[in-house]
Amino acid sequence: MTSSLVSQGDLVLAAEDLSMFGQDPWWLVVIKAVLIFLVLVLLTLFNIWFERRVVARMQHRIGPNVHGPFGLLQSLADGVKLALKEDIIPKAADKAVFLLAPVLSVVPAFLAFAVIPFGPVVDVPFTDDMTTPLQLTDMPVAVLFVLAVASIGIYGIVLGGWSSGSTYSLLGGLRSSAQMISYEVAMGLALVAVFLYAGSMSTSAIVDAQERIWFGLILIPSFVIYVIAMVGETNRAPFDLPEAEGELVGGFHTEYSSLKFALFFLAEYVNMTTVSALATTLFLGGWRAPWPLSAVNDGMFNEGYWPVLWFLSKILLFIFFFIWLRGTLPRLRYDQFMAFGWKRLIPVSLAWIVAVATIRSLSLDGGFDRTYLLGALGVVAVLFLVLFFLGGEEEEEQAEAEERPFDAFAGGYPVPPMPHQVAQARSQSPTVASSTASEGSA
Amino acid sequence: MTVVEVLFLLLGLVAAGSALLVVTTRTMVHAALWLVVTLGAVAGIFLLLAAEFVAWVQILIYVGAVVVLLLFALMLTKAPTGPQPDLDARRALPAVAVAGLVLAVLGTTVVAGFHGVELDLDGAVVGSAQTTGATIFQQWVLPFEVLSVLLLAALVGAIVLSRGTGRRGGE
To answer: B50: domain CATH number?
Structure first.
């Protein structure tokens, strides 16, 4: 029934070949898994140090430089210190869920790396003629697997916020669930264009499809949307609203201490690495060497164990970008952040998908002229601009609608004015001033 | 019994058992979490039947979005951390009757439609993204469109409802 449909619907897309996966003996699988775990934990330790040093440099400080060469062992010392702290479980907490939440947050972060390719097929050292791909496994829907696993990670934050039995934690959990769902939509939509071009959802096939040109170059809008969404998805500055210190103390992990807090911390940094690795795989050619190097000596740098170097340096580039953002941009206001996600990112990425699908089917069907392609790109660019300006006007109208003078005590307790409102001077309303004075003395 | 059959049976038991816990537990958030277990077990069944695409979409949409939204709504309405003994089930019997009826209808449909059909689990094409896409957009395109119109109507209805109350409250 279904097989006949498949043969009818055969497209002119690259057939994915996953036959090299699933051939490894069990000890090789174990070695690969342990190596991935080690790389991720070491990268986390390194990234924490890297972040502190780079941010310090941006702020004209020195940063950690005492323990080990350049202070490299600082994160290790902090980790040990964290493990020795007292483990506190609040009385109002839902104990089972409180213990489950950090685990739910950290495990999916590691799981996603199972399908990320570190390099091409290589010879296994210390064996005769055994070859294996530098990737734990792959499947026809690997990218979907990464998205699905990442969406499970939300539970760690939401449940951690709820089970603490604290208002700050609950607010942090609420914010993060809204934020991560919203930005996951934009993230998924950004990936659709890549699927259309690669003709596959398997990570190794997507890397293969970028042999000639990186998708980050031909699908720039998708790349930009993905990068914005990945910062929102990992709760990093300037989108770190779930743990906004000035408003929520620590957000969802306010009540967590000791190793359970360390797990949340680990999850955040591993997630940063995971989204960076996914961005590298989907948009920056994965493990492939950058252009001038890839031409050296008949592609020598694209074979053997060299690609691991390119892959890791591309990831570190993204990590530096994360840190750079944190060092330069202030945190967004919550309503601005959600409006940006739903009213700008998602419509723009939907329009872009339609454009990409059209271009793709045209070039697959009849090899159309490139001028049409450029024309379509122009239309999309205009749409992009129109959407941005229209959105701006709406907000202005809203602001004009609220013409009433601002009364800080309208709700019974003082609130600060919104950015477009002007607070009245205290002396103009003597009754309010006197009443608050009497409350203060009482 | 083969390994697949044993796993299928176990996953089915997990799904049914946690579904029962969804309606019997006394803590609202725990109910949502048991729902996650149910949906996860169903995704596992899809995986067993070589429907990889559907399985991961199930996790992505139902576990990753729908139940998180449920939790979001629960937390907005102040879900307490302790159990609530006053969570009543006054219409328990009619609910059981309706659930039984739905089970009967769906069960008969599945048996009548797929009786004697054997899946070749070794062939990777059974549940690939390509097969699923081609089946939905060729064979089942009409039900698919009807469903999307239904969802659109629900969406518009939700917006109308929320806007209407908002206006009245504002004036």
So the answer is: 1.20.120.1200
Q: Structure tokens of A183?
A: 């930005």
Walk along chain A (442 residues) and give the pLDDT tens digit of each residue. 334 333 333 333 444 566 677 677 788 888 888 988 999 889 888 999 999 899 998 888 888 888 878 888 888 888 888 888 888 888 877 788 888 889 988 998 888 888 888 878 777 777 777 777 778 888 888 888 888 888 888 888 888 888 887 888 888 888 887 888 888 888 888 888 888 888 888 888 888 888 778 887 778 888 888 988 888 888 787 877 767 666 777 778 888 888 888 888 888 899 899 999 999 988 888 888 777 776 676 666 777 778 888 888 899 999 999 899 888 888 887 788 888 888 888 888 888 888 888 777 777 666 556 566 667 677 777 777 676 656 554 555 555 555 566 777 777 777 777 777 766 655 544 454 444 444 444 4
B60 vs A3, A151, A178: nearest CB: A151
Instruction: For chain B, list residues whose CB is within 8 angstroms of any CB belonging to chain A.
Output: 27, 29-30, 33, 36, 52-53, 56-57, 59-60, 63-65, 68-69, 71-72, 75-76, 79, 81-82, 124-126, 128-131, 133-135, 138-139
Gap between the Cα atoms of A101 and A274, Å rounded = 19
Instruction: Domain of residue B1: give its range.
Output: 1-83
| Gap from A117 CA to chain B (nearest CA, Å) | 20
By Cβ distance, the residue of A93, A144, A184 closest to B56 is A144
CA distance B56 to B40: 10
Per-residue b or e along A99-124, where b marks 16 or more CB atoms closer than 10 Å to that residue's CB: ebbbebbbebbbbbbbbbbbbbebee
Name the pTM for this structure. 0.79
* Other C-beta atoms lying within 10 Å of the C-beta of residue A35: 13
Task: Tally the domains of chain B.
Answer: 1
Exposed, middle or buried, B84 (CB in 10 Å: 0-12/13-18/19+)? exposed
Q: Where would I find the beta strands (DSSP E) of A295-420?
A: none
Q: Give me the sign of the Cα torsion angle A364, A366, A370, A372.
A: negative
